[in-house]
Amino acid sequence: MILNIFRLRENKVSKDRPRIGIDGLALPILPPERDARVWARMVRVMFFTPGFVALLLIKAGEPASFGIAVELLILSCATAVVAGLFVGSQSDGAGADHSSRVSLWSGSLVLELMSVVPFLCAVPPLFHELAHSKLLHAAAPGAIDVTLGASELLPAMAVLPFMLYQLAGFGTLHYIVSKTTNMIINLAALGLIIAAYVANRLASYDHERMLVGLLVVIMATTVFYGVLKLKRMQETYDANCPLKEPSPPKEAKPAEGAKVA
């Protein structure tokens, strides 16, 4: 089923966009038009949600075992604000330039890689801290401490549909890099998220910081490259896109009651 999704998305081309430019070469395949209102709501979600859980972690968790979770959550909030700047500068109307035409796609790329990825990286250690918080779970005298075991990994499963979103071609990165590069970047992010969580559980916080730092550097580099690549693609598309043929003028209808000669 997943392979069929890949094939359908690779073979389907927008009906409204020409595929060959005036120079005889293939035009860049830009991301599809998206609803800016939906992405503006996503900006609000990715600003308030990580901020709320960061405050909850600071209030109820044990500071000694925070690792780098709080920093990741604050990074997720801050980059959501930056993504909102990109989304807000989207324009296709009069005076729009190449940058404003790709602002929504650029904002979605920032949100996907610099806000969602850090949030997903922070979720597993965050849940572990909240599940074992002495403030949230004050033990009664004589109570038996029940360990959650493997069920602690359930919140971490949110990374799997995100990987499907990215690898099946729904993400913005799919239109910027090749399929192989897209797979390498996302699988590297998945591996670093898993490795950082293992380092956190082993209380190896120095290794966790190095792994998370590498993850953030990869995501930031990809975002920088992606935003500039989107702008270049839009410039190439605008320079070589064939002009639409003007529609023939419609014949004026005779007024009601007028006599036809």
From TrEMBL:
Residues 239-261 are annotated as: Disordered. Keywords: Membrane, Transmembrane, Transmembrane helix. This is Uncharacterized protein. It comes from Candidatus Accumulibacter aalborgensis. The chain crosses the membrane at residues 38-58, 64-88, 109-127, 156-177, 184-203, 209-228. Residues 247-261 have a biased composition (Basic and acidic residues).
